[in-house]
Design a protein that fits this description.
The chain has helices at residues 139-146, 161-166, 189-197, 236-248, 257-265, 306-315, 317-329, and strands spanning 29-34, 37-42, 55-59, 61-63, 67-72, 77-87, 90-97, 106-109, 113-121, 127-132, 174-177, 201-207, 230-234, 252-255, 276-280, 295-299, 340-344. With 347 residues, the chain is α/β, with parallel strands linked by helices. The longest helix has 13 residues, at 236-248.
Length: 347
């Protein structure tokens, strides 16, 4: 069927958008979706839903301080959100200003350093390329020193001290993401230890989430949408763990849509994955045939979003519509700081 963006709309009362995380990481609720059935559970009871030999695959990307405030040469105010640091002196970003800067124009960011906008970037030219004017600088160090934590646009408070910890997973290692892989925010060290003790295995990959994840779709038919590209890396140890899980009859469980997108992008028809780094612009919609992932742990997603389309492909369009209606009725908390879902794949 020819699906439109409106087919993935739903009514969400604004008060259900979580503005702060639960008091403890594992304190969220968990909606377990099995076909047309949905079971209300607590996230701390997740181990009871897993078995020895299962493999949890986590995204170990670390969020960088990617938001900057500054001014143009003319004095106009700008807000810059890094999409990706290309190298020490080059980055791709979004820019919010009264007028978009022209190529060659300069900006002072964080009252500290100067950048030059060198041109448009991205598949649709909707990002900007930046270059440090002082070549002795380093975007990684400048972001850490002068940037602000980039909380999602639907979180209304500025980043606070608690966000510095709670908007990172406990296993975050590889800096470069500008949005957290939020399904992993529910895990703490004690939960990970419980899972390992009962024979549930863990593996890691890296996909650096870009700010493009929040950009609204500008098409009517989803077949016309072009996804932004993101970089991912699959280590040898993770590929071996997936192959061993497959051989032993275990289940591969992606923690978050970012892990799922990386695994499916690197997936082979036999359910194994290719080792190494690559770019992915995979756009998963109903009708997609999953090769690697058997179950998915994820948060609730925005109306009309590509991620809502992804989970509809994974668990079934009707099942997700029913589950989301149930979640709204039962006052689940939505989005990055909200509650979680455990989805069973439908074939």
């Amino acid at each position: 069927m020819s699906l439109t963006v409106d087919d993935f709309d739903f009514h969400l009362p604004p008060e259900l958008i979580a503005q702060h995380p639960a008091a403890k990481r594992t304190g969220s609720r968990l909606l377990h979706v099995c076909g047309q059935q949905a079971f209300d559970r607590q996230f701390e009871n997740l181990p009871a839903l897993l078995k020895a030999g299962d493999l949890l695959v986590f995204n170990d990307a670390r969020v960088i301080k990617a938001r900057f405030f500054g001014c143009k040469e003319t004095g106009g105010l700008v807000e810059v959100m890094l999409e990706r640091i290309v190298d020490a002196t080059h980055a791709i970003c979004q820019i919010r200003a009264s007028k978009a800067p022209k190529p060659g124009s300069r900006m002072i960011l964080g009252d500290a350093f100067e950048v030059c906008m060198t041109g448009r970037a991205g598949t649709d030219g909707d990002f900007f390329a930046l270059e440090l004017v002082d070549a002795s600088g380093d975007f990684w160090e400048l972001a850490e020193q002068y940037g602000k934590l980039p909380l999602p646009p639907y979180i209304e408070h500025p980043a606070e001290g608690a966000d510095e910890t709670r908007y990172q997973t406990v296993y975050a290692r590889e800096p470069g993401a500008v949005a957290a892989p939020t399904a992993g925010l529910h895990f703490d060290e004690a939960m990970l230890e419980r899972l390992r003790a009962q024979g549930v295995n863990t593996a890691f990959l890296t996909l650096h989430v870009g700010a493009g994840t929040y950009r609204p779709m500008r098409v009517e038919k989803i077949a016309d949408h072009r996804m932004h590209s993101e970089r991912f890396e699959i280590p040898q140890a993770t590929a071996e763990a997936i192959a061993a899980t497959r051989a032993a009859g275990g289940r591969v469980i992606a923690v978050g849509t970012t892990s799922l997108r990386a695994l499916e992008s690197a997936g082979n028809d036999d359910g194994t994955v290719r080792v190494g780094g690559a770019e992915t612009s995979i756009f998963i919609t109903p009708g997609y045939r999953f090769k690697v992932v058997d179950r998915l742990i994820t948060n609730f997603h925005l109306p009309k979003s590509t991620l809502l389309m992804l989970v509809s492909a994974f668990a079934g369009y009707d099942a997700i519509r029913t589950a989301y209606a149930h979640a709204v009725a039962e006052r689940y908390r939505f989005f990055s700081y909200g509650d979680a879902m455990l989805l069973e794949r439908v074939d």
